[in-house]
Amino acid sequence: MSALQMTGASLWAALSAVAGFITDKTGIPVLRGSGARTDSKHIWLPRLPDGLLTKKEVVMVIAYLYHECAHIMKSDYSLSGNTPLQGAIAGVLEDIRIEDWAQGFFPAARRYLSDLVRLLAEAGVLETMFHPHLEGW
Question: Is the model's pTM score more than 0.85?
Fold first, then answer.
């Protein structure tokens, strides 16, 4: 087995372990879909590419798991605003609020959420495999 294959296998194992911990702790089911989202009861995450995972993909999956779990556990879905602008502002503020909460509830969330922000900032875009309706990186 090559070093790259070992790294890929290690990343799959790490992803499985951390995702299992998060879902076991919360009891929230995770399904595969076309993007990252929640309906307040389930989390949908995008399918990962076949083959070896990159560290970036593992960080993104885990960070989105923390983010979406926090929405299910602490979001008030009735606060959506009366206009599209109010809804967008409420959404941004809610994301900040629930990620702050997640970092207290899940000790490792701070690292993954911070790494996700760094990855998105380095890419210069907010479009990822987690938002398939937008351009990829």
Answer: no
